[in-house]
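Milestone 3.1: sequence recovery, worked example.
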């Protein structure tokens, strides 16, 4: 699997992404299919256990809010409630009370509330709107997502370029020796398209997702709606160079541990960090992607490249 990074995600980015995808009002996905994972290895899975888990999680969700990351687990030590770090201690106290009452009523041993340790990836996947997210890879420290991918090709690690689709991808922005000028010259073949779309076109250069599209264009002061033909090769190369720089910085372990903050991405109507103008948002491309920019720092697109 070639790691084309759509996003490396921490909690802040998860919320930003959820906001971008308009997931705020989604119903909870049915919990039943994954409830078995709540039962500790070595304990036989019984229907009444799953019903108990579902009942406790539903009661907790009703009290703590749908946004709460919570898990009711059946462990050898007893029933354990896990809560995401987003919850305040008051919520933990609430969860303790609800779960201990439920355990007493069901004649089960209650073993306490603890912190849920993989809340980011789990919260993200649980909230994903069906059809938007094509593939998710979850590791202990990273969630990598592909959104609206048209084709996903899984290739042997030793021969990643063998497949035709893979071979048609442009140079990898994250690869050693990536040449921004080469990427820019490939982009110039698409002079009548908006720069925002071309940055996402994996056949031109592979690796840039919606977050780094927005952030790199802000970094270079270019409106996302600007037509490629209105830019010089050096200007386009500087955008690819910025994207690579930002993506590499975002992949560093210390960056993932820290709360991520973006300059424009997902910051609708917030102040630009450079000039304090209000950041605007609109949809661009096919499929349409939410796009953020600063009207003062990234001038011109409204005149040059508005699509009808
Ligand atoms: Zn600005």
């Amino acid at each position: 699997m070639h790691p084309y990074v759509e996003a490396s995600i921490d909690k802040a980015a998860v919320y930003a992404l959820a906001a971008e995808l308009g997931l705020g009002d989604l119903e909870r996905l049915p919990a039943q299919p994954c409830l078995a994972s709540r039962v500790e290895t070595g304990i036989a899975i019984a229907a009444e256990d799953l019903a108990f888990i579902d009942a406790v999680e539903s009661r907790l969700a009703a009290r703590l809010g749908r946004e709460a990351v919570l898990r009711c687990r059946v462990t050898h030590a007893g029933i354990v409630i896990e809560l995401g770090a987003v919850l305040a201690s008051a919520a933990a106290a609430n969860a303790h009370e609800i779960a201990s009452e439920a355990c007493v009523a069901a004649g089960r041993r209650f073993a306490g509330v603890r912190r849920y340790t993989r809340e980011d990836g789990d919260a993200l996947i649980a909230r994903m709107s069906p059809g938007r997210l094509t593939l998710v890879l979850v590791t202990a420290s990273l969630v990598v997502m592909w959104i609206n991918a048209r084709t996903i090709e899984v290739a042997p690690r030793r021969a990643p370029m063998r497949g035709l689709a893979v071979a048609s991808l442009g140079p990898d922005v994250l690869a050693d020796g990536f040449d921004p000028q080469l990427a820019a010259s490939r982009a110039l073949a698409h002079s009548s398209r908006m720069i925002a779309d071309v940055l996402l076109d994996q056949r031109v250069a592979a690796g840039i997702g919606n977050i780094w599209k927005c952030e790199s264009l802000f970094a270079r002061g270019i409106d996302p709606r600007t037509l490629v033909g209105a830019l010089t090769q050096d200007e386009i190369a500087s955008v690819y160079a910025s994207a690579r720089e930002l993506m590499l910085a975002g992949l560093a372990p210390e960056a993932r541990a820290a709360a991520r903050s973006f300059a424009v991405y997902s910051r609708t109507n917030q102040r630009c960090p450079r000039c304090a103008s209000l950041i605007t948002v609109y949809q661009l491309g096919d499929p349409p992607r939410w796009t953020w920019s600063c009207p003062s720092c990234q001038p011109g697109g409204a005149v040059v490249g508005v699509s009808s």
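Residues 170-304 form a domain with the Helicase, Ruva Protein; domain 3 fold (CATH 1.10.8.50). The CA atoms of residues 13 and 260 lie 7 Å apart.
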